[in-house]
Amino acid sequence: MAKTDRMKIGVLCHPTYGGSGVVASELALSLAERGHEVHLFSHRAPPRLARASGQVELHVAQGVPYPLFHATPHDLAITSAVLDLHESLGLDILHAHYALPHAVSALLARSAAKGRSSQRAPRVVTTLHGTDITLVGNDQSYAPLVRYTLTASDAVTAVSADLVQRTAENFGPEAMAGRIAVVPNFVDLAEFHPGVATAQTGSPPTVVHVSNFRAVKRVPWLVEAFAQACGPGSPGEATDWRLLLVGDGPDQARSRRAAKNCGVDERVTFLGTRDALPGLLAPADVYALSSSEESFGLSALESMACGTPVLACKVGGVSEVVEDGVSGWLVDADDPQAFADGLSRALRDRERSRAMGASARERAESLFARDRIVDQYENIYRQAMEGPPR
Ligand code: GMT
To answer: What fold characterizes domain 194-367?
Structure first.
């Protein structure tokens, strides 16, 4: 890469096991691989970055605890760390993942840099991931600030067209200024790839689910739907259907209780948090996305790349990822019986599930390949750098 094409990019993100933390880490690694100088700021090391060998510089900024503070304001420590680096290095772009607090931190750093530094102020690109607009961001306690991040950022992207629409509904046309670009999430197709087909290996018909077990993921609801699929009179009753739950979070204990109460505890395995996702996703017959709200559904895409079809609730941007009847099945979010029937169908007809898994892989290849999406982000950065300062 020519020196003039090389950008200095700061990525700000939550250190989450899934979702925006994964997207930000994978993007940072891909940009570094392309020759850009990339710095990632977070209050802990995001797991996807921590286990990668790529040339991204990690800046963990936590701030110091002080009795006066209700909670340590790590967002201020991140702003400070960004500003400090910018003064010595001159960052071109700050890419904030999730409006709160990172877009606020990035805009504050940009504003501070304007007055103080000899360097040109960095341009701010904000990526909306979902609940920063829907569940959290539209609460009146944060909404005015989220609205400000939308209008003040140099560029705003959202991970699905549905999320752009939700942003317009929640924040009004004046916050949009017609400039929120849809940049979908992406997957590394070399890392997430199909394995040997399950039915051929003689392993039991298996449903897999990966999440942070927050209420919005409805894991207990999924356990109940699975129990219904295995219930008396169903083909699953006499067989060895399995539900594999990967991840951990607030609803884990409730999910375990649901499995016990429904009499399927011996069929449900709680694996806890795991890094080796392709090896868990690829052998399954179907991936279950039971969320009541989902702007994209990154884990569903990772599953599709592994050749595993998805059964999901028709919410948010999920239908932009999963094509009903082709790469998976979509059912109403308030219809547990339809979800149970979907699981049953996918586990009963393993040949059909395998064929849909192949279509799912093709869809991941044609629409969500890493390089294609990283190109889009690079273009957005360049346009932001060339445009007038805000
Ligand atoms: O909103 C969340 O649940 C957090 C967020 C994250 O940081 O994990 O998830 C959102 O961003 C993901 C990455 O873009 C999307 O794949 C998820 O669909 C989205 N979650 C929701 O909309 C519930």
So the answer is: Rossmann fold (3.40.50)
